[in-house]
Write the structure tokens for this entry.
Amino acid sequence: MAIIKVQKGTKDILPPEMPIWHFMEEKAKKIFTKYGAKEIRTPIFEATELFARGVGDTTDIVNKEMYTFEKSDRSLTLRPENTAGVVRAFIENGMHRLSAPVKLWYKGPMFRYERPQAGRQRQFHQVGVEVFGIKQATADAEVILMAVNYLKELGLNDLTVELNSLGCPKCREEFKTRLKDVIRPYLPQLCEDCQTRFDKNPLRLLDCKSPECQEIYAKPEIQAVIQGDFICQECSDHFEELKGYLDTLGIKYERNKLLVRGLDYYNRTVFEIKSNNLGSQNAVCGGGRYDSLVKNLGGEDVPAIGFAMGMERLASLLGEKQDEKLTAYVVSNNTIEAIKLTEELRSKDITCEFDLTNKKFVKQLEKASKIAKYALILGEDEIANNEITVKNLDSGEQKTVKRNELDMK
């Protein structure tokens, strides 16, 4: 009978890999909690309309990459990202009535049908933060700082922060018009996606990865528009204020006017954090401000900003972490006594195992030396005298103590 294998674009996270995943999750809880963020867990599938309205029907995610299925005359979609789901939960549960800012963080699987590549799968995991209720640049600065400090806590220091401002809807319209005017003569030469984006969302043209399109967008007359300052005074003041905070905090950044991000809901601040150890696919964090999304999804007019990080990509940078050894391994050919001692230690929150198959002493000691810090030896003499021989498996030292005096803390 043929073996059923894992589906393309998905992978098993096996026990030897789990220490790095636990490490990333524990550091997320530690850092984000310091900033006052509370964890939220949303369903992995939502109404398809949530992503069409939230992420945007001009994005590749909605047009090409979503896992959508029909059930009981409803269209449901496995979440391709979690901002829309968190915003839905924010609205539905009346969190706008809470004192601002409302800071939420999450971790979990996302799903996109795309070509698998290094650090990116069709089922992948993200950790992220969303902050609601603050329109000032202080929130932008704190969110960026939170992301940078999380990455540093993981041990990643070779980082570059790239910033841009997309402006507000009002000033962005003028930029879109100017951009379309200079690109229009080259429209027949653009890829099919860019030809679609030209009318629906011309800002997304700058996010195209096609070398042919990038060559066109590098032309001097197009670059003159891209590199020009189009944002209004209010948006410019917001961006300058943000840069001032980052300068004060010692966060190094670069302005990248081609940075637009791949989702329609962003406005004003957008940012990416890149690792110089990942080659061309070097972004480890992306985020930005989405002040209109809560209202667009039926909520109050609440400003917001957030970020997300791909955990597979982070794991590829962090390498392996050794699983922590058991505290103790009970070595005995008296199965009843071995079970009793093992459970006694487990009840005291001490990690402990014994040999379920009752192998010879020497085999049990061999296994203990590989997976535990201490061997607790229960031979006939120890059992008769109510004692335990404790062997330090690193140093080889051992001593015999009364059973009621055993202290593994």
User: Anything to note?
Assistant: The CA atoms of residues 45 and 197 lie 27 Å apart. The chain is about 35% helix and 25% strand. The mean pLDDT is 88.
